[in-house]
Write a structure and sequence with these properties.
3 domains, D-Amino Acid Oxidase, Chain A, domain 2, eight-stranded mixed β-sheet, 12 helices, about 375 residues, single chain, FAD/NAD(P)-binding domain, 16 strands
Length: about 375
Amino acid sequence: MKKVDIAVIGAGPAGLQAAISLAEKGYAPVVFEEDPIIGQPIQCGEGISENGLNDFSIPISNSSICVRKLESCRLFFASELEVFGDITAYTLNRDAFDQYLADKALDLGTTILTSSKVEKVIRKEDNLLIRVKGKGNSEYECNLLIIAEGCKAKIAQSLNFSEPSPLIKAFEYKIKGEWTDKLEFYFDSQKYPLGYCWIFPKEDETNIGIVTYARERKKRLDKFLKEKKISAKILEKIGGSIPMHGPVKKLHDNNVMLVGDAAGMVNPIFYGGIRIGMTSGKIAGDIAANYLKDDGKTSLLEYEKKLSEYSFMDKVNLECHNFFYSRTNRFLQSLGKLLEGRFINLIEGWEKIEVLSHLLKYPVLYKRMIKLYKMYKGFKIVRDWGF
């Protein structure tokens, strides 16, 4: 058995950022990753806001990580009318992104054990026993544990945390060629219930996917490609599950903290989670360092307090989700007509008055003005945190 101060389960962006934050403060965490290669298999649309890259000093100039800069996006609400979104973002090579974080953690003194699946964590009186199937030691004893195992959260559930449910599933093609010059999102309550289709351009290839609570995702995505007259060589198929309702209620317990998808750290409107997950990882790493420094006198309640300062924790995000994704196509089409040519998350000053005056043309909208305002607030948060 090997004794360590702190362990991290999962080497995705959230777990790696937690390790980086700890290592920067002089600690040497051990990270367990069940897959043999960091960043693979890819389970991501491969996009992040520029703010997310700046937060963690990711080198935008590194073309192996940041593939393409995109300013603004197009949104289609059950019609061909264009609505815009104010966002500056980059499409990524997600595996290279994760590997960059892993290399940074390693350089700072972190130990990363790949092909090492944590099968069980047992609470002891003052610490935790971790049983690992894979290379290296089979048992580790640690004083503090950060769980970043992903949305299935099996280890977290075994320690009396709740699963970040419900989960929604995504399916994506990576195809040859560039099929648009902007990020595009397509909402249709009948075709893609509780979700949407997306088109993310890269360099010489495009990611086209669907996220929906409905079944037959591949069939629905194939139909979308046919409707858009997109036909190209499929380079890769990607799929995965995503927490749908945002952060779980309990984020820590005794000497354990949850980060990333295991904690539901996903914006519930667009289901994006890289920046949110890494932010939770950084805060958890900082709090963990203080906890270890003062021998457990720092309360892990500080983790939740720090997180609560961020807009992605605001309940308005889930309220926006519940309202927006319960709307009919009639509502969506009216919304598209109202906002045609405008930025859905950048309506200020006189434009706000102009939009309000036009609302009278659409009874399905103005009867829900308060909900619409909350939706607007949610989409403003999406600009930074939901992608």
